[in-house]
């Protein structure tokens, strides 16, 4: 699991900001937010423009650093505009069984690395300083990767035109995982498996602008009666009472309907909240994968507060071990019935992240009305 994430000089985060998933307060309620003494369900509040979306992008940055592919579409400023530092730094600390692993790197830009470093059990396995062409691969045997041809890696960095590469400075960790035969129980295999299952999801209503081909693919999957029933049950559980019918039209296209005496087209008549639920379902729930980490940004933007609470309960029940961070403006979710003070955080304009249990001199208990305290200004100092 991810133990700690630290970021500096990325977008609006000039100073260092950390999320310590092991910093728990020992509450005996809402224990389903904690897995193996690590926070697995977290809700972040923040005023507009505090950087909730940017924090999600930073957390997921490791995915494309390790595996390449198209980096998130972002034409804005990468580094903090008020800083004179030339790079943004990212640090991820993991625990896999008895192994503790730290992967750190710094970026000049969205595309170019300055350096990277991997530590396992506090031992530096490798370090790469791309800016000054200094490399240390002396401890690869500690992770049984001593057969790696580092000379071939160094040569590969100089072959071809940089414009043809997805990233001018190819991360050594990416190369190592792709080019070395590792044991199935290797800590790098565990890291790769975890990282491949990380997702950033903005649970907004994109159905209106979703290309027709994506709708067709989704509707085609619903031809499986079990999947259609699963979607119907999901919507009903969230409070949208409905019966769904999928029909194939004469032109071969498929359409989804609400089942009444007369069929009502689903796509054209569903509320924005219902469409947002279906979009969340489409992108997350029917997938044949076991997510390791999900960042749900503004997940409840179109939901009634009761529906938002039901979504949280559903996610906690379905993905018990998955680490899920949600962001919201909905203070109705600030309750010990859903989470707890060490899993509820405030992100400030200054770029600090503070758990509610650390944002007041009071000893917060199960009976405290956290929403009332928030609205009355109890935590203003940390906003």
3D structure, described in words:
The chain has 383 residues and is an alpha+beta fold. 26% of the residues lie in helices and 24% in strands. The protein contains 10 helices and 18 strands. The strands form 4 sheets. A 7-stranded antiparallel beta sheet has the order 2-1-6-7-8-9-10. It is globular.
Gross morphology is globular
Percent helix range:
25-40%
The tally of beta strands, per DSSP, is 18
The overall average pLDDT, rounded, is 91
Content of β-strand: 15-25%
**Which spans of ≥5 residues are poorly predicted at pLDDT below 50?**
160-167
Which class do the helix and strand fractions yield? Answer: alpha+beta
Main sheet: strands, sense, barrel: 7 strands, antiparallel
Radius of gyration: 23 Å
List the strand order in the largest sheet. 2-1-6-7-8-9-10
Helix-strand pattern: EEEEEHEEEEEHHHEHHEEEHHEHEEEH
Q: So how many helices?
A: 10
Q: What is the first-to-last residue Cα distance?
A: 29 Å
